[in-house]
Amino acid sequence: MEVSKMNKRASLWSQMDELIKSEELSAEEKKILSDAKTQLNNNVDDEKVAAQLKSRLSFLSIKGSLSATVVPLFTELSRLYLGYGRRGNISIN
Questions:
Q1: pLDDT tens for each residue of 11-52
Q2: Does residue 93 surpass a pLDDT of 50?
Q3: Contact, 85 vs 53, CB < 8 A?
Q4: Pick from 41, 65, 57: which is nearest to 92 by CA?
Q5: Which of 18, 39, 84, 89 is a plausible cystine mate for 44, CB 3.0–4.6 Å?
Q6: From the CB of residue 46, how many other CB atoms can be counted at a distance below 10 Å?
Q7: Is residue 5 one of the residues assigned to a domain?
């Protein structure tokens, strides 16, 4: 993987850390982001964490519960981790 992509991914996870501290997020959004952070801290592969995070945030988006504060993270996550996971699969866990 090229260095710039690795740096962008590291920046994305850093952005997620900042969002977890935000007062503007719902409890559900904070839980989803905190779960992802815990997985990363437990050395779970970042691509797996990204796929699960995208799935969970997609579900919130479909429900209309994704806050505007999280949208830039979700967009960048989708751009940097394009194509991971199975096509057409939405996980609700």
A1: 899 999 999 999 999 999 999 999 999 999 999 999 999 999
A2: no
A3: no
A4: 57
A5: 39
A6: 20
A7: no
Higher pLDDT, 86 or 21: 21
Tokens for 67, please give them. 């806050």
Report residue 53 as tokens.
Answer: 């995070």
The number of folded domains in the chain is 1
Burial class (CB in 10 A: 0-12, 13-18, 19+), 92: exposed
Query: Does residue 7 sit within a domain?
Result: no
**For residue 1, is it within any domain?**
no
Amino acid of residue 69: T
Q: What is the pTM of this model?
A: 0.81
- Write out the residue range of the structural domain in which residue 43 sits: 25-80
DSSP readout, 34-77? Answer: HHHHHHHHTT--HHHHHHHHHHHHHHHHHHT---TTTHHHHHHH
